[in-house]
């Protein structure tokens, strides 16, 4: 299949995983800044943030990241040499509003993104900007309870207004929240939400998600008012659930799991909670508290496109045999699929699952899709000659691009393909550097040691050719 000439080949990062400079030029603390490395208990801190907020650790990976804050010109020059057409990054909320509740923004933070986006545009690279990417200000968490408090909608909209007015004529593609469905899996990541021992966790997280949905709709309205050409997208952590067997109970379990995954996207794309939401909320003992006008806001301000991350499909079943084989799945529990290879970090490699997921999404919504994260986290070795022969990454990307093109042949509209962690960065879940996704190597280890020197991997040259031929040479 011949792709359109404006197809957006590119890469993606997040501010909290690459920028570093965690208190420089007036930046405040965000939730990632209090999470330690894997060795010091990052997983416990993610799921029990009340511990992390009171504890002092020896090493915080986000504090320096890969020093993108100071090296962005070098990094963008490398990405331009690779030929990318689009670069997804996020804006650090606490660079713009250090506490989150100020009335006036931090000018030095805004100036950094002025320089960053101008550098992108100098090369003809389209910025794709995520407004909130696991980056809640700590002050909003500690003083207000973050997204569990409806007041956070106003703080977020104040932040959005500054961004749209400053960058709305330069940047076409915006994403309101990274992987919005993550709030029900890791509430602290997804919304800065902490749940008390005596609270119904489902009530707290679904109510927080409702506040995000209202905020997303109002931000979409605001963006269109400032520049009608802006395209605003929602985003989910995608990957269709397969039933473990053809037993009706397993098939139904997969149906329910997929509905749970699509719940918030249904609201952002269709403008209302789906009919099955009542069943979910009843089963979870959840009552969504809405204010007057919420339903109208959601209905009238739907998104333009659906952005999503895809790393693997998922598997679910209810029988005792199925439940013996649980894989890590990176935050979303899945069973081990005996037909798939699995990475050391629990992700099952399923290129055909991307085609399935794209067909599921497009068939459900008929809105343009945008693959804004896909890639392989792996251990990379630098040879004595200084080379990184990452053929396994090339194989992974090749097969997923083929699956994407097949989905487009099926009739799915897709705006682009962005490789996650196009340059090595800190893993969000593990806090590791050695779980590498990039096509550009960064000399840094899990304890923060290394020169930060950048090196092109074999995959750099392969992807360069893919882009040059618009996906024809794989």
UniProtKB/TrEMBL annotation:
Top EC group: hydrolase
EC number: 3.2.1.86
Alphabetized InterPro entries for the sequence: GH, GH_1_N_CS, Glyco_hydro_1, Glyco_hydro_1_AS
Record's keyword terms, sorted: Glycosidase, Hydrolase
Gene3D superfamilies: Glycosidases
One family name in Pfam for this protein: Glyco_hydro_1
Protein name as catalogued: 6-phospho-beta-glucosidase
Gene source species: Fusibacter ferrireducens
Encoding gene (name): ascB
């Amino acid at each position: 299949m011949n792709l359109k000439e404006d197809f957006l080949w590119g890469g993606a990062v997040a501010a909290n995983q690459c920028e570093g400079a965690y208190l420089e030029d007036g930046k405040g603390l965000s939730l990632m800044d209090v999470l330690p490395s894997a060795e010091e208990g990052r997983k416990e801190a993610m799921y029990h943030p009340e511990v992390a907020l009171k504890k002092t650790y020896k090493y915080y990976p986000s504090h320096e990241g890969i020093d993108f804050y100071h090296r962005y010109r070098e990094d963008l020059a490398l990405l331009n040499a690779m030929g990318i057409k689009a670069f997804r990054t996020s804006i650090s909320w606490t660079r713009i509003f250090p506490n989150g509740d100020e009335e006036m923004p931090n000018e030095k933070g805004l100036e950094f993104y002025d320089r960053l986006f101008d550098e992108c545009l100098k090369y003809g690279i389209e910025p794709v900007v995520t407004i909130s990417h696991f980056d809640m200000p700590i002050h909003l968490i500690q003083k207000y309870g973050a997204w569990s408090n409806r007041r956070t909608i106003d703080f977020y909209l104040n932040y959005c207004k500054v961004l749209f007015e400053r960058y709305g004529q330069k940047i076409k593609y915006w994403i309101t929240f990274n992987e919005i469905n993550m709030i029900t899996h890791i509430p602290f990541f997804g919304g800065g939400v902490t749940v008390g021992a005596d609270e119904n966790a489902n009530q707290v997280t679904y109510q927080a998600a409702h506040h995000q949905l209202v905020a997303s709709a109002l931000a979409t309205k605001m963006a269109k008012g400032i520049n009608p050409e802006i395209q605003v997208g929602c985003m989910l952590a995608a990957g269709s659930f397969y039933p473990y067997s053809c037993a009706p109970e397993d098939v139904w379990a997969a149906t329910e799991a997929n509905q749970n995954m699509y719940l918030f996207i249904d609201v952002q794309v269709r403008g209302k909670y789906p009919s099955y939401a009542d069943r979910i909320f009843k089963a979870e003992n959840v009552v969504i508290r809405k204010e007057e006008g919420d339903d109208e806001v959601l209905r009238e301000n739907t998104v333009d496109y659906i952005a999503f991350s895809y790393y693997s499909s998922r598997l679910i079943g209810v029988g005792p045999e199925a439940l013996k084989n649980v894989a890590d799945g990176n935050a979303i529990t899945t069973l081990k699929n005996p037909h798939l290879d699995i990475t050391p970090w629990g992700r099952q490699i399923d290129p055909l699952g991307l085609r399935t997921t794209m067909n599921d999404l497009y068939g459900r919504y008929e809105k343009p899709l945008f693959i804004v994260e896909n890639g392989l986290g792996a251990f990379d070795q630098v040879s004595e000659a200084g080379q990184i022969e990452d053929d396994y990454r090339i194989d992974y990307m090749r097969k997923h691009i083929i699956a994407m093109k097949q989905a487009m042949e099926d009739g799915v509209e897709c705006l682009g393909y962005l490789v996650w962690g196009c340059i090595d960065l800190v893993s969000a879940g593990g806090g590791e550097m050695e779980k590498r996704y990039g096509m550009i190597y960064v000399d840094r280890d899990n304890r923060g040691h290394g020169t930060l020197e950048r090196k092109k991997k074999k995959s750099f040259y392969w992807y360069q050719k893919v882009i040059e031929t618009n996906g024809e040479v794989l």
